[in-house]
Specification:
- The protein contains 12 helices and 14 strands.
- It is α/β, with parallel strands linked by helices.
- The chain folds into 2 domains: 13-107 and 114-247, Type I PLP-dependent aspartate aminotransferase-like (Major domain) (Aspartate Aminotransferase, domain 2, 3-Layer(aba) Sandwich), CATH 3.40.640.10; 250-372, Aspartate Aminotransferase, domain 1 (Alpha-Beta Complex), CATH 3.90.1150.
- The strands form 4 sheets. The protein has a 7-stranded mixed beta sheet with strand order 1-9-8-5-4-2-3, sandwiched between helices.
- Strand 6 and strand 7 form a beta hairpin.
- The longest helix is centred in the last third of the chain and has 18 residues, at 250-267.
- The two termini are 13 Å apart.
Length: 374
């Protein structure tokens, strides 16, 4: 038995420690000028993030849920409309659909990537369908060729939920550059995380960007001139400053994530009862999460045993969104999403962040091998 090592799920303290002089300088600039809401720091981040993704415009917001909400609102999606999305994701994706009064229509996932299964989408399309809203889950790009063809054939808006895919690629293009609009979260634990909540939309459509800029600031077309129902979803200056600094490190951090994912895949390749995630092609995956599937009903037992050996893990996500109590009125029932339901019972997220060491990754894999008896 190896000597016990504590392995956190992620280590934000260490991330911030390594770049603290840069962060402190950026934060001091906001504080010294008292530019706490929007302001120059947010504008600088917006101007840096848009070209990074390959877009003309970026609008900073207070969180990723608001980004999805503002995107649908700005596209005039509302009551009577249907939005097709994945059954396996964090609930914010469907919250945004519900916030604008539209109906979320859920589709099962691909068993290899855990992303929405393009082969199942067309059967879910009705005359009320207006939007296709895929989620690039865990840092893995969706099949954007297939989704683009479906959206074009059926005249649907394609809106990307890229909240877990900062820096991910698909056929040489950044995720977030495919749809009419794309939405990001900068929750602290993301590959690109703020010092609190944060979000953004990116688009090439100047009118959409302008409308979202108004919507986020109480729909003001000028001081005290409110042209429609608006919201208070502005990004804070400190978050913009922090994100501008961290964006400069994102590609390096993602490279370390890929290195650690490769290491996990090598060390766990032949472990019985453990199914490894698909790696993506051309190094496109950015491994926001490294999620394995555990045989049968052994997931909870393995998670407990890992915790006893100092290894922190997570479960993302334990219940498909359409089977949540909040969506009981839609009439979905167990068995409607067999792949997502299988994944929810067996998924286990292993420690993954660039601040870990290779020794810690080796320790996690070694404990799993030992517990599996291999």
């Amino acid at each position: 038995m190896e000597t016990k090592i504590n392995v956190p799920f992620l280590d934000l303290k260490e991330q911030n420690r390594r770049i603290w002089p840069e962060l402190q300088q950026a934060i001091d600039g906001v504080v010294s000028n008292a530019q706490f809401i929007l302001g120059p720091a947010v504008e600088r981040f917006e101007k840096a993030f848009a070209p990074y993704i390959g877009r003309k415009h970026c609008v900073g917001l207070n969180n990723g849920t608001s980004a999805l909400h503002m995107a649908l609102q700005a596209c005039d999606i509302g009551p009577g409309d249907e939005v097709i999305t994945t059954a396996h994701t964090w609930v914010s994706t469907s919250w945004a659909i519900s916030y604008v009064g539209a109906k979320p229509v859920f589709v099962d996932i691909d068993p290899a990537t855990y992303n929405i299964n393009p082969k199942l989408i067309e059967r879910a399309i009705t005359p009320r369908t207006k939007v296709l809203l895929p989620v690039h889950l865990y840092g893995q790009a969706c099949d954007m060729d297939a989704l683009g063809r479906i959206a074009k054939q059926h005249n649907l808006l394609l809106i990307e939920d890229a909240a877990q895919a900062h820096g991910a690629m698909y056929n040489g293009r950044r995720i977030g550059s495919f749809g009419k609009i794309a939405c990001f979260s900068f929750y602290p634990g993301k590959n690109l995380g703020a010092f609190g909540e944060g979000g953004a939309v990116v688009t090439d459509d100047e009118e959409l960007a302008a409308r979202i800029r108004r919507l986020r600031d109480h729909a003001q077309a000028g001081r005290h001139c409110h042209v429609e129902l608006g919201y208070n979803t502005r990004m804070e200056g400190i978050q913009g400053a922090v994100l501008e600094v961290k964006l400069r490190h994102l590609d390096d951090w993602n490279a370390v994530r890929r290195q650690y994912a490769d290491r996990y895949r090598q060390l766990l390749a032949d472990v019985p009862g453990i199914q490894l995630p698909a790696a993506g092609k051309d190094g496109s995956h950015v491994w926001h999460l490294f999620v394995v599937l555990v045989r049968g009903k052994d997931r909870d037992a393995l998670q407990k045993q890992l915790a006893e050996r100092g290894v922190s893990t997570g479960v993302h996500y334990p219940t498909p969104v359409p089977l949540q109590p909040a969506y009981a009125s839609l009439g979905y029932k167990p068995g409607d999403f067999p792949v997502a339901e299988d994944v929810m019972h067996r998924c286990l997220s292993l420690p993954m962040c660039p601040e870990l060491t290779e020794k810690q990754i080796d320790y996690v894999a070694g404990v799993i091998r030992e517990l599996a008896g291999s």
